[in-house]
Design goal:
Layout: E1 2-6, E2 9-11, E3 17-24, E4 33-38, E5 45-50, E6 57-59, E7 67-72, E8 77-82, E9 91-97, E10 104-105, E11 109-113
Parallel strand pairs: 2-11
Antiparallel strand pairs: 1-3, 3-8, 4-5, 4-9, 5-6, 7-8, 9-10, 9-11
Length: 115
């Protein structure tokens, strides 16, 4: 199983970023996918989740209405569109698959929101 995130970077408050997570080594379309984030000094938290077929999505209250999770099963990729970014969205964002007893994590991509 391999998950490779990309798309992070430095953005001003109110800006947008689109994260991507390219998956390989497993049957991507069979598993739910999630985005987590971890800010300095804080625990890792669930940001968004999407079902295997993309028909069900869930979001943390802190990102509802601003972030959108989606997936393209033909490309084995899950996305996180982040709009209206706030300073408190600064974190390392991780992709996660529910495959296996413990699931699998990507290496993370840094998102920094700063003026």
């Amino acid at each position: 199983v391999q998950l490779v995130e990309s798309g992070g970077g430095l953005v001003q408050p109110g800006g947008s970023l689109r994260l991507s997570c390219a998956a390989s080594g497993f049957s991507f379309s069979s598993f739910d996918m999630r985005w987590y984030r971890q800010a300095p000094g804080k625990e890792r938290e669930l940001v968004a989740a999407i079902s295997s077929a993309g028909t069900m999505r869930n979001y943390a209250d802190s990102v509802k209405g601003r972030f959108t999770i989606s997936r393209d099963n033909a490309k084995n990729t899950v996305y996180l569109q982040m709009n209206s970014l706030k300073l408190e969205d600064t974190a390392i964002y991780y992709c996660f698959t529910t495959r296996g007893s413990l699931g699998s994590w990507g290496q993370g991509t840094q998102v920094t929101v700063s003026s």
